[in-house]
Amino acid sequence: MAPVELVKNIEQSPNLKITSKSHVKPNKKIGKKECQLTTFDLPYLAFYYNQKLLFYKGNDDDDDDFEGMVKKLKHGLSLVLEDFYQLAGKIGQDEEGVFRVEYDDDMVGVEVIEAVADEIEVAELTVAESSTILKELVPYTGILNLEGMHRPLLVVQLTKLKDGLVMGCAFNHAVLDGTSTWHFMSSWAKICCGALSMLSSPFLERAKARNMRVKLDLSSPFVTSNGSDAKPKPNSQLRDKIFTFSELAIDKIKSTVNNNDHPQSNGPKSFSTFQALSSHIWLHISHARNLKPEEYTVFTVFADCRKRVDPPMPETYFGNLIQAIFTITTAKLLFTHTPEFGASLIQKAIGGHNAKAIDERNKRWESEPKVFGFKDAGINSVAVGSSPRFKVYDVDFGWGKPKNVRSGSNNKFDGMIYLYPGKSGGRSIDVELTLESQAMERLEQDKEFLMEA
To answer: Do the record's keywords include Transferase (predicted)?
Structure first.
């Protein structure tokens, strides 16, 4: 089944011209499918579509090259959707109002937008600091996941640059998490490179992880759990920047945090790279914010629960199988203790989030379900999403690895972090950080944070 073309003449900006829209369906008939959203999915209905940007170098000003790339991407998309067909569906509700993912062959499928920004080079967009043009290169800014009842669950914008292509993707976060996102992206890339089948098909049986029928009262869908308005407010005081920590820097941070033994119920246990780096970032952001000794600060990590639930779910589980884990302390305790103090708090919180804790969290939420906003990560928070384990630089569609990968502006707030493997390779890690501008200025001057001292 060929992609359905729906070419439209839509609004333009000085930097970018949108030339067409189309919709891509699975390459074969799937039939009617329904899959109930679980307790792990439903809280994200009041988040925004998850946005990812991948930048690829191509030939200078070659229209044929771009058209060939788009054709290849669309064909590969139609093939990968045979397994990931849920992304070509929509969010619906059954007769009792329980949310689910619905698919049938008459639905429009994944939306593909084609655009041109041929005065801009890839190098201009792969710098550390975010620019305003990035927002134009990825669709669905400010669109809530709940709107997936009326909009595609995946939208892909392919923009031709002077010397390459930008792929901007918007995924409905109520339908999938980061692990599922990059499973889909790597599968799509493999098929575009000629693979006859994917290495691993998505595991679509969400009920195996949690099978509770939960009804949400969404009469006021834009109100978060703390009663604040979840609609995004423009904040010119926030800055978005990538900090790269080399292998050497990572080793120094890990060595410093593991310098002293720390008490554990079962004896000393070394801190992981994630725990060491997280504690390093938490401490230095708290300093950059000029927190008073008595002020509280919260570290939040959206942890993958695939191996934590009972029974464990496969890595290929498709959906959300994450939960937010919170750690809180005062600035005084964070500042006056040795570096392993913050790491030990994070380690204890993550280690304690086992199958029993997950089940108890789910039962509490199911007894009083409510959606929460993307800002509900705690006071003076440092919140970590994504993971350096995601192989984002292996997403090669046949014209080389991406020159850079980053997130769009959705679901970002003061203190939000996305971790990626460093584009320089090895064990380096890129930290994409959103922070209030004055705090960001102070952080940029912090040589200990940058590991320059």
So the answer is: yes
Provide the token pair at 388. Answer: 């350096």
Q: Are 167 and 156 in contact (CB under 8 A)?
A: yes
pLDDT tens digits, one per residue of 52-103: 999 999 866 566 789 999 999 999 999 999 999 999 999 999 999 999 999 9
Please tell me the predicted confidence (pLDDT) of residue 374: 65
Q: Measure the CA–CA gap between 147 and 221, rounded to whole angstroms.
A: 11
Q: How far apart are CA 282 and CA 150, in angstroms?
A: 39
* Burial (CB count <10 Å: 0-12, 13-18, 19+), residue 93: middle
Find out whether the peptide bond into 311 is cis, omega within 30 degrees of 0.
yes
**Which residues are designated catalytic?**
173, 396
For residue 434, give the nearest of 235, 232, 238, 284 by alpha carbon: 238
Task: Specify the 3-state DSSP secondary structure of 12.
Answer: coil
308 alpha-carbon distance from chain centroid:
20
What is the rounded distance in angstroms from the CA atom of residue 402 to the CA atom of residue 170?
A: 17
Residue 329 three-state SS: strand
| Bigger pLDDT: 232 vs 337 | 337
